Amino acid sequence: MAENVSAVKDEDEFSEENTFEVCSEFKHADTEVNEENSTCARRRLFSSISEAVRCAKNGTCITIRPGSYTETSCLVLDKDHVKLVASEIPKDGQVVKISFGSQARASIVCRGSGILLQGLEIVQLKEDSQQSSMSKRLDESSCVRVEFGSTEIKDCSCTSELGYALIVLNDAKLSARTCTLRLSFHGALICGGSSHVEFSKNVVSQNTGFGIVTLDDAAGTFSENSIHENGKCGVVCSGQSSAVFESNTVADGAQGGFWSQDRSTCTIRRNRVYNNLKTALQVSNMSEPDVSDNKIFDGRGGGIIVHDSAKGTYRRNLLSNNFQAGLGVMDNACPLLVDNTVLSNKSGGVVMAGSARAVFVGNTISGNSFAGVGLKESAQPLFDGTIIRDNHGYGVLMQGSCLATLQNCVIEGNKKSGVCGTGTTSVTVDSCTIGCGNEQRTGFLLHDSASMQLFNSHLFGHHGGNVVMRDKTRGTLERNTIAESEGAGLVLQGNSDVKLFGNVIRDGKVSNVVALDGARVLAVRNSLMDSHGVGMLAMDSCSVKLAYNLVIGNGGTGIHCTGNSSANLCANRISQNESGGVMLEQSQGPVLCWNVIYDNGGPAIQLQEVNRGSLVGNIVLGGSRESAVPVMMDNQSSGRCEHNYVQANKEMEEVARGSSVDLSSNHLLAEEHWEEVVHWGLDEILKNSGISGECVVIEMPGESEEEEAGGMLCVGLPSDRMCKSGLEAVFENLSLGSRGAEDEVGREEGNGSSGEA
After folding, report:
1. Is the dihedral of CA 126, 130, 134, 140 positive or negative?
2. Phi-psi domain of 9 (left: phi exceeds 0; alpha: psi -120 through 50; beta: other)
3. Residues 6+ apart with CB under 8 A from 554
């Protein structure tokens, strides 16, 4: 500061007449004259600051010696380039302290251009009887009020017991640097109108109200300030203000760190915001801030909350270790969030409610309590390229009637389910990886009447099932890989309903697909393979419809239906399953037509207590083991078995003699024709499957590369025709609709004859 004062005294532009000095020990009576103007002309030394200001002209530099000054009236600086500076650097308690009473709204009013206040301690006192309520108004009391022109404040300390330390309005400009603004009643700084403020390296602390408030169209840059321990928010941006807050520390605010409201378009970047009692950054009304590269942590409230109809862009922020959620999006808010890290927050990572719509791109949500993402009510988020990992509860928990889309995401290692849907929620998942990681119990869990659409994703390694659907849930799964579950790849319970297209479901430790308690399965062009147990298990009144599927290499039976479950199997390849091809027991009206069932370790088809079954046009061959007979049928089963191509051996002759079902219309195949007929059947499945677009070619396990193309099956998207007509039309067209069993058998008989021809 000594350098600045010296510069003031040595500048040629100021003559001796424009250099005043004020000393508190200089007595006014010693220089009193009759005419004030002649007094000012003859001397440059004043006992009061107000007297010096009254005599100042454009360019006057008023230096003030250390001491305490009490002014009873407002100082109006309406001349240009007036400087009010301490004569030396304050030290050892020697400061320039200017105290003002409460008679005037503002202690110092700046209306000129190029005004400088430097090295001053300015205090606006309040009388004991004066009462005031907290406000964000520009007409409140203040230490310094900048109305017009431009003012620079350096190395000053300002405290207003009545209002704000600094007020800037109209189109005035303020530059404040290395100042301390503390203990003011309403707050440290409020700026409005179209004012512009440059505010850097200041301390804003312990104000009863706000730290900094921007209103109207105020703009400017606030950088490298310490804003802490204020009774309300550290920073409030209102109106249409567009200020930039950069590299500040905002801490210990009783009502939070930042609050962007109204239609503010403020910029908040590279700040450290921590230990605030409430939300670190609140965005409300129709505000659209640009928030980037901030570290928001250790808050006793939440990290960021966006609500009302607010929007804004939020990029590369770290939201960590906050007591409440790292990020909340409520009401009708619609923010864009890119490349943020939401880490180790105590009440969840991301929470959305109301009718909020948000877009998340490239974020990492990890290590949060309760859930990485919690969605409720009618929230509608889109997550793209987001990592949701190692959260202490769910990865994504959906409640109410929310509608979510997840694409290109990684969801793994969460202690509960990767994605859990309840209520009437609906989720679309595309091109995601949902893996067990260290602990995640289930990949996808649906309850109540929730629904999902799962496309092009990879789910693997979960202990409680990769996909679990309960109650009245509904789902469409298309072109996914569902693998390596410690239980079952897909588990259906209650009245759940699932449609499967072109999925690869493999390596389940118990089964690839388990359907229980009245569940419904419609599966077209899937691969159910390499399970340690059954390929598909249906129990307890389930409905299973399968067409053009590949069921191979499972450790148990390929397909096992029991407990009054109904099975409609059409044009499937079922082979190389350890315990047999198809097992139907206690089944009502099952239909098997045009399937190729061969080379299984047990019976190709086994029927027990089957009522009114229909086996039409299948190719049925046993295996090399003695137990691998083509057909095993007890004498309690009934129905029709016609126009099938069946391996000829003495076991088959015994079945024919002991069965109550007429087997006379079937075609018995000699051994030399087995391979030819199997390849012909696989070719027919391939030609009639309606596959178009991308396909995945899966080789027969254990067969050489020299095998013909007919020994492979293509699994891919359904054709447009089949998509538009609906999957149910597949079975309707193939006489597998919901008509009575007698009509089905009649239609299949005609189709079987056509196949023979």
Report:
1. negative
2. alpha
3. 512, 528, 529, 530, 531, 532, 533, 534, 535, 577, 578
pLDDT, tens only, 468-484: 999 999 999 999 999 99
Which two three-digit tokens encode residue 69? 């000054």
Q: Which of 658, 579, 590, 638 has the alpha carbon at shortest distance from 618?
A: 590
Tokens read off for 278: 């409430």
First to last CA, the chain: 107
More confident residue, 438 or 527: 527
Q: What's the confidence (pLDDT) of residue 643?
A: 87
Amino acid at 81: H
Tokens 């309005």 sit on residue: 169
Residues 6+ apart with CB under 8 A from 25: 67
CA distance readout (Å), 235 to 132, 249, 250, 383, 443: 21, 11, 8, 30, 42
Task: Please state, in angstroms and rounded to a whole number, the distance separating the CA atoms of residues 509 and 487.
Answer: 5
Query: Residue 661: how many CA atoms within 13 Å on its side-chain side?
Result: 29
Q: Which of 186, 78, 184 is nearest to 123 (CA)?
A: 184
> From residue 635, how far is each of 484, 603, 605, 663, 667 by CA, in Å?
39, 16, 15, 13, 21
Find the helix or strand (DSSP H, E) in which 77 lies.
strand 75-77
Reading the block at residue 658, the tokens are 């002991």
List all residues 6 or more positions away from 11 whose beta carbon is below 8 Å from its beta carbon. Answer: none
Instruction: Please give the pLDDT value at position 112.
Output: 96
- β 290-292/433-435 pair status: unpaired
The full DSSP string for 133-179 is: -----TTS-EEEEE-SSEEEEES-EEEESSSEEEEE-TT-EEEEES-
Residue in the block written with tokens 């119990």 = 441
* Of 307, 291, 299, residue with least CA distance to 325: 299
How, if at all, do strands 481-483 and 295-297 pair?
Answer: unpaired
Cα gap 263→282, rounded to integer Å: 13
Contact 16, 40 (CB under 8 A): no
Pairwise CA distance, residues 657 & 413, whole Å: 57
| pLDDT tens for each residue of 631-656 | 777 766 778 888 888 887 655 555 55
Pairing state between β 150-154 and 115-118 = parallel
d(CA 185, CA 446): 54
* 498 within 8 A of 505, measured Cβ to Cβ: no
- Separation of alpha carbons 748 and 616, rounded Å: 6
In one-letter notation, the amino acid at residue 557 is T
- Using the structure block, give the residue that is written with the tokens 């490349």: 339
Strands 474-478, 451-455: pairing kind: parallel
CB–CB of 127/151 below 8 Å? no
Q: Rounded distance, CA 384 to CA 378, Å? A: 19
Amino acid 182: pLDDT: 95
CB hemisphere CA count around 542 (13 angstroms): 32
**Tokens 């075609």 sit at which residue?**
667
Residue for token pair 């897909």: 490
Rg (CA), the chain: 41
Around Cβ 702, how many Cβ atoms within 10 Å? 10
Whole-number Å distance between alpha carbons of 105 and 97: 19
* pLDDT at res. 90: 60
Q: Quick check: 529 and 514 in contact, CB under 8 A?
A: no
Q: Residues 115, 153: contact at Cβ < 8 Å?
A: no
| Distance between CA atoms of residues 501 and 715, nearest Å | 9
According to DSSP, residue 707 is labeled S
| Residue 19, H or E segment | strand 19-22
* Strand duo 613-616 + 295-297: pairing: unpaired
Handedness of CA 696, 702, 705, 709 (dihedral sign): negative
Pairwise CA distance, residues 55 & 58, whole Å: 10
Contact 169, 189 (CB under 8 A): no
